[in-house]
């Protein structure tokens, strides 16, 4: 097949002790997490929790020690991610910085930016948001219109970003902005640049958007003559599209792309013993979970080898999204309101709602399948 | 076997099948014509007995090596009962019996024996013992989907028997057969996906290749995901069998059979949909692969059988152990 390989990877021996530490920590920290917290997991925002995770060295684990990083392997980091997600931990206050913004700054940022931002991401102090989508630019991201104009000493931003998860609680965002007009409508990927923007800058208005669950999970951000100094341009001016695409590959590469609803299966399992039809369904779900885990590990292994597995990550995210999205529906068929514990039913209901986002965030199913189709050679 | 040796072996098998198999060969199988030349070549390469240790005349191929080989075999729709023969030889050797020349038929429970009419001997597992019964299997039949010979033996008296090592367990033959079929499905999935991508890029409607339509692209991307998942599940099962023995790898083998079986259903539907009417004809080779995928997903335990097994085990272990068990491998 057209070159998508997933070589099995073994976790390094150090992973076992790390996993034991994580489980002990999460068992203690998670004693009072409600079904809502567990169902919301990585959209949940808990600064105290993130600082504690940072204190234990579980953020920026693979980054150089000079910036506070742990210099551990991508596979050890994988263990941290999968344990957090399997427990339904509220990781939102450090997730984006650890997964996307930090790696981007590390790869393309100036030395000054690295020293300024990375240690504070590592400690769990600095929360990041993703400034990509706009009201008129979703899947067609390159059509975005929020612009940064050159002014003495920096840039002046005007426009709007939307769907930025937790931006109203975050400290910084990395925004993709238009710094030059596209040379022609077919080359709209040109003239884009990325900036580090302080979410509390003068001229920024953040309006939380209530989501269908009833939470203020995401936002609309209005930029009205917001000044950003030259020192906060990330990477190269005009190279923003390539940079943001690589950033999205980081986003898609994680195990969160199949584990979002696993806490429900864990919570429901004991109740399902009373349901005769459950064995087969649970078996099918576990067969896929184990397989998706091996696929995710293969992607983590590619990251460890210094590769950029963008297409492989898109494929695993697509298969994983189908899985995690179907799980609450599948289990619903096995529940009995008179038998199933109320908190399990509550988690199922919340996940039914939250699961709509699984195949939207980080690239819709349709966009991902377009990427895979191109990889297959369809044109 | 080292990675290098495995690569060389897989290339040899790929070359053999590319050169000497194809739709004509598969159709001949369905007419009951034994693939004499192909089998002779396979024997010349030592493939049927390759899983026996060197001391018993084999090459010491592991389950992981074999799963990779069966994947290649599946890519060519398995034009000879080599996988079954390899499993039978592996079981015999594990029971301390040197595999004999000629086709060894694999007999698992009530399931028919592929090409049993040609088998020099039949191999089965009862309890923890491997049994060898003289062949052939004389009650001739046809596999319902693949229409290849699938025969039954009259009850006989075992000529030889050997105790299997503990790691094989009472279901060794069923587990090995499930790994074999999952691997062949994974290979066949790649073949039908490649075939369909090529067709979609060639077939023109509304003035353009149908592969340019998003509706078609979305379908094939989904098929690619299922195909990749099946391949990973199979490789994982082979690795687990090498590490934990067949019985110890029940979760991974069951998972591979479930995932590959589900993928077989999904991808057969997608590839036929994209091929449309031409793929529904006898002339077109697509069905030579899809019918075998349907055959293999039923053989050696369908998805529901294996899913129930691992599901029952997980329910007994309870929610507190679910994640720990999943990550214990």
TrEMBL record, chain A:
Residues annotated as domain Acyl-CoA oxidase/dehydrogenase middle: 129-226
UniProt keyword annotations, A-Z: FAD, Flavoprotein, Oxidoreductase
Highest taxon in the source lineage: Bacteria
Essential cofactor(s): FAD
Keyword Flavoprotein listed: yes
Span of domain Acyl-CoA dehydrogenase/oxidase N-terminal: 13-125
Domain Acyl-CoA dehydrogenase/oxidase C-terminal: 272-376
PROSITE patterns reported in the protein's UniProt record: ACYL_COA_DH_1 (PS00072)
Listed Gene3D superfamilies: Acyl-CoA dehydrogenase/oxidase, N-terminal domain, Butyryl-CoA Dehydrogenase, subunit A, domain 2, Butyryl-CoA Dehydrogenase, subunit A, domain 3
Family: Belongs to the acyl-CoA dehydrogenase family.
PANTHER family (alphabetical): ACYL-COA DEHYDROGENASE, ACYL-COA DEHYDROGENASE FADE34
UniProt-recorded name of the protein: Acyl-CoA dehydrogenase
Native species: Paracraurococcus ruber
From TrEMBL, chain B:
Keywords of this entry: FAD, Flavoprotein, Oxidoreductase
Cofactor(s) required for function per UniProt: FAD
Pfam families linked to this entry: Acyl-CoA_dh_1, Acyl-CoA_dh_N
Domain annotation Acyl-CoA dehydrogenase/oxidase N-terminal: ranges: 9-92
InterPro entries xrefs: AcylCo_DH-like_C, AcylCo_DH/oxidase_C, AcylCoA_DH/ox_N, AcylCoA_DH/ox_N_sf, AcylCoA_DH/oxidase_NM_dom_sf
UniProt keyword annotation of Magnesium present: no
Ranges of residues in domain Acyl-CoA dehydrogenase/oxidase C-terminal: 174-305
The keyword Flavoprotein is assigned to this record: yes
Family, as annotated: Belongs to the acyl-CoA dehydrogenase family.
Protein name listed in UniProt: Acyl-CoA dehydrogenase
Originating species: Paracraurococcus ruber
């Amino acid at each position: 097949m057209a070159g998508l390989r997933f070589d099995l990877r073994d976790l390094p021996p150090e992973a076992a002790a790390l996993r034991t530490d994580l489980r002990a920590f999460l068992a203690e920290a998670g004693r009072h997490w409600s079904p809502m917290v567990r169902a919301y997991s990585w959209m949940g925002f808990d600064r105290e929790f993130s600082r504690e995770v940072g204190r234990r060295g579980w953020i920026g684990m693979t980054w150089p020690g000079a910036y506070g990083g742990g210099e551990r392997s991508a596979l050890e980091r994988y263990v941290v991610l999968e344990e957090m997600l399997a427990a339904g931990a509220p990781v939102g206050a450090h997730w984006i910085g650890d997964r996307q913004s930090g790696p981007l700054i590390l790869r393309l940022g100036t030395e000054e930016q690295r020293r300024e931002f990375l240690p504070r991401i590592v400690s769990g102090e600095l929360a990041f948001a993703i400034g990509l989508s706009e009201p008129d630019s979703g899947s067609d991201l390159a059509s975005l219109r929020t612009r940064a104009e050159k002014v003495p000493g920096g840039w002046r931003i005007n426009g709007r970003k939307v769907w930025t998860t937790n931006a109203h609680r975050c400290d910084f965002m990395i925004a993709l902005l238009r710094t030059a007009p596209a040379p022609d409508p077919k080359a709209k990927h040109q003239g884009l640049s990325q900036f580090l923007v302080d979410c509390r800058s003068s001229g920024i208005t953040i309006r939380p958007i209530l989501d269908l669950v009833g939470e203020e999970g995401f936002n609309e951000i209005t930029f009205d003559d917001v000044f950003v100094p030259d020192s906060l341009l990330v990477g190269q001016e005009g190279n923003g599209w390539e940079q943001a695409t690589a950033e999205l590959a980081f986003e898609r590469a994680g195990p969160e792309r199949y584990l979002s609803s696993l806490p429900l299966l864990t919570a429901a399992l004991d109740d399902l013993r009373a349901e005769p039809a459950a064995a087969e369904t649970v078996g099918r779900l576990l067969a896929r979970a184990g397989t998706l885990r091996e696929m995710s590990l293969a992607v983590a292994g590619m990251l460890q080898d210094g590769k950029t597995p963008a297409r492989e990550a898109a494929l695993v995210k697509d298969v994983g999204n189908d899985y995690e999205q179907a799980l609450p529906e599948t289990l619903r068929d096995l529940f009995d309101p008179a038998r199933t514990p109320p908190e399990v039913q509550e988690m199922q209901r919340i996940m039914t709602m939250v699961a709509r986002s699984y195949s939207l965030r980080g690239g819709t199913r349709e966009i991902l399948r377009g990427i895979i189709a191109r990889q297959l050679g369809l044109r | 076997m080292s990675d290098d040796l495995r690569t060389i072996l897989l290339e040899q098998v790929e070359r053999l099948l590319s050169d000497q198999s194809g739709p004509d060969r598969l159709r001949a199988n369905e007419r009951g014509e034994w693939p004499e030349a192909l089998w002779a070549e396979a024997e010349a390469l030592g493939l049927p007995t390759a899983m026996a240790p060197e001391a018993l005349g084999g090459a010491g191929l592991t389950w992981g090596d074999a799963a990779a080989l069966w994947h290649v075999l599946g890519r060519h729709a398995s034009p000879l009962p080599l996988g079954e023969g390899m499993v039978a030889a592996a079981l015999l050797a594990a029971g301390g019996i040197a595999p004999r020349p000629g086709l060894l038929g694999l007999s698992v429970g009530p399931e028919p024996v592929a090409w049993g009419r040609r088998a020099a001997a039949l191999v089965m597992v009862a309890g923890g013992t491997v049994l060898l019964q003289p062949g052939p299997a004389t009650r001739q039949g046809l596999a319902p989907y693949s229409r290849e010979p699938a025969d039954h033996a009259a009850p006989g008296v075992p000529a030889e028997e050997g105790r299997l090592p503990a790691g094989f367990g009472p279901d060794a033959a069923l587990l090995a057969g499930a790994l074999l079929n999952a691997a062949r499905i994974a290979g066949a999935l790649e073949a039908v996906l490649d075939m369909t991508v090529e067709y979609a890029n060639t077939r023109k409607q509304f003035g353009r290749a149908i592969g340019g339509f998003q509706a078609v692209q979305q379908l094939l991307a989904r098929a690619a995901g299922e195909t990749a998942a099946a391949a990973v599940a199979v490789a994982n099962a082979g690795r687990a069998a090498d590490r934990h023995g067949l019985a110890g790898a029940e979760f991974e083998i069951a998972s591979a059979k479930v995932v590959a079986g589900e993928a077989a259903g999904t991808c057969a539907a997608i590839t036929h949909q994209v091929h449309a009417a031409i793929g529904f004809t006898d002339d077109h080779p697509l069905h030579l692969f899809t019918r075998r995928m349907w055959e293999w997903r039923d053989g050696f335990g369908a998805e529901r059988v294996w899913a129930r097994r691992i599901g029952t085990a997980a329910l007994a272990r309870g929610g507190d152990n679910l994640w720990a068990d999943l990550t214990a491998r």
